[in-house]
Structure formats: structure tokens, C-alpha cells
Amino acid sequence: MFGLGFGEILIIAIIAILFLGPDKLPSAMVDVAKFFRSVKKTIGTVKDSLEQEMHVAEIKQEALAYKKDLLSASEELSRTTDMTKLGEEMSGLAKGITEELPKSESPKTAPIPEKITFEKKPITKEDNTNV
Hints:
The longest helix is centred in the first third of the chain and has 49 residues, at 6-54. By secondary structure, the protein is an all-alpha fold. It has helices at 6-54, 56-81, 83-100, 125-129. The radius of gyration is 45 Å and the shape is rod-shaped.
């Protein structure tokens, strides 16, 4: 109680008995208890009235709702930015698409690549007519 040890409380009790005497000590203890009870009640009343004035309960509920929204948004953001998961999903989609495509019986031949050179071509009559 109030950070006092048993020895300190005992010393205070002995001093109180010496100053008040054994006759007045019980009534003084009752008065001290009534004082602490009234202080506690007053503090509780002030706290309740402040909470009513400030609408603390409503503010707490709004804050919790915002916190819940932020947590869900951050989870969704981390889920969408997780590249390993995204890569796995994309490879799963690609695998699903390739499985759904019909397989042709004859393999298609690849087009023959055109050879690109920077050599001058001889000019023919057909080329002159277009100019």
C-alpha cells in the first residue's frame, strides 16, 4: 500500500498510538478510511464525467475500426507484393493454359530466319520503275 513496507506501517501505527492515544485511535482510523473512500469516489465521478464529455468510448471504437481496416489493407498489400507467391501463381496459370490448349498432331515447323546483311543489292529494272 503506497509503497510502504510492513516495518514502516508498524512505525506509523506506533506513532499514531502515542499521539492520539488508545481512545481516539479507532475513531481516527474510521475518519481516515472515510476520507480515502470519498477521494476514490470523487476520482471515479470525475473520470466518468470526462469520458462522457469526450465520448471516449466512441473514439475507441472508431480507432479500433480504423486499425482493423489498416491491418487488412496491409495484409492485402503484402500478399499482392509477395513476388514468390506471385511467381508461383503465374506458373500455375501458365501450366493450366498449356494443359487446356489442344495439341496438334503434326509439329509446326519454325519459320526460316531471314539473313540480314548490309551489302548493296544490284539495282534491277523493277526497282527503277517504282522510283
